Amino acid sequence: MAITYELIKTCKQTGARLGRVHTPHGSFETPMFMPVGTLATVKTMSPEELEQMGAQIILSNTYHLWLRPGEDIVEEAGGLHKFMNWNGSILTDSGGFQVFSLSDLRQIEEEGVHFRNHISGEKLFLSPEKAMRIQNSLGADIMMAFDECPPYPAEYDYMKKSVERTSRWAERCLEGHNRPNDQGLFGIVQGGEYEELRRQSAKDLTSMNFPGYAIGGLSVGEPKDVMNRVLDFTTPLLPDHKPRYLMGVGSPDSLIDGSLRGIDMFDCVLPTRIARNGTLMTSEGRLVVRNAKFARDFRPIDENCNCHTCRNYSRAYIRHLVKANETFGFRLTTYHNLHFLLKLMGRVREAIREDRLGDFREEFFEQYGFNKPNAKNF
Ligand SMILES: [Zn+2]
């Protein structure tokens, strides 16, 4: 098996899991946050910088790499790791989410999905088999099954049909996957907010014996309490000896709340995307560095942070760069936000080790300001 999971310990206070996922390109500790490198690059960061800040696994998007430069070029380069010079682990998604979220002209059939390229308008088709072929060429350590991700909210009847189709597609993915010894394929549990459908989806997928499972269809616009409720009844349906990945989640509160419910892996464009707007995550909450009040503020972004950005640059300087659209400004804000989340996950793992993740949650939420009635979140 390309991917194995080692459970190190369970937090006595919360049931959260401390573990390790082993991949063909090394292992990483869990719970873990995965920075997103859509086009085989985490925007503005070099692989050396990612390594420096403690990233151990990154995510790349199949849909985007398929359209450009094309998976054949990545394969010819020796796979994604060689192509982008990243020696840690990589996960690729299936392209399904982008097909459903980026293209408006799409037609879903049993065979797959017809849609238009969001850049050129060209007609394209993606199916479970094709998503596997592309991901086999990209060569990531972890690949994802091709699923349907319905929008929120979706009617029960539609969701039921969609869950059944996703299970049939998952079987076709397993059959179409040609490199099971080098690449681990994860199944994706869907079912929206409906417990019965999550149960059915988890039952179908766990019977297919994937080396890991994702929970999809969350963080698509539903309130946070709905997400937590879905996790409460879905996570226990997944096997203990395999990694669990909550897709598309990356706000500090949700990373803690997901870990607390037994999730091991997370990814999200949030920290890198907001960094390019000049919005920063700090130990005292959200900081919008463009604001005029920082024009003469020569303190670091976060006085409790020891990242490269905070050790060397001031709010005033970063504000100036971001307002002037200078690339270096976006590099500094991206570095800080990713470092902040990777360090946060380190603190989450430490708290699990010491059986106090519940206490840590309270302390963090208090300091971050999440407990205030009008707290600004992400
Ligand atoms: Zn920092």
Automatic annotation (TrEMBL):
Protein's UniProt name: Queuine tRNA-ribosyltransferase
Chain residues that bind substrate: 93-97, 147, 190, 217
Annotated catalytic residues: 93 (proton acceptor), 267 (nucleophile)
Keywords: Glycosyltransferase, Metal-binding, Queuosine biosynthesis, Transferase, tRNA processing, Zinc
GO BP term (any one): tRNA queuosine(34) biosynthetic process
Lineage: Bacteria, Bacillati, Bacillota, Bacilli, Bacillales
Role this protein plays: Catalyzes the base-exchange of a guanine (G) residue with the queuine precursor 7-aminomethyl-7-deazaguanine (PreQ1) at position 34 (anticodon wobble position) in tRNAs with GU(N) anticodons (tRNA-Asp, -Asn, -His and -Tyr). Catalysis occurs through a double-displacement mechanism. The nucleophile active site attacks the C1' of nucleotide 34 to detach the guanine base from the RNA, forming a covalent enzyme-RNA intermediate. The proton acceptor active site deprotonates the incoming PreQ1, allowing a nucleophilic attack on the C1' of the ribose to form the product.
Binding site for Zn(2+): 305, 307, 310, 336
Gene3D superfamilies: Queuine tRNA-ribosyltransferase-like
Similarity comment: Belongs to the queuine tRNA-ribosyltransferase family.
UniProt GO cellular component terms: cytosol
Signal peptide range in chain numbering: none
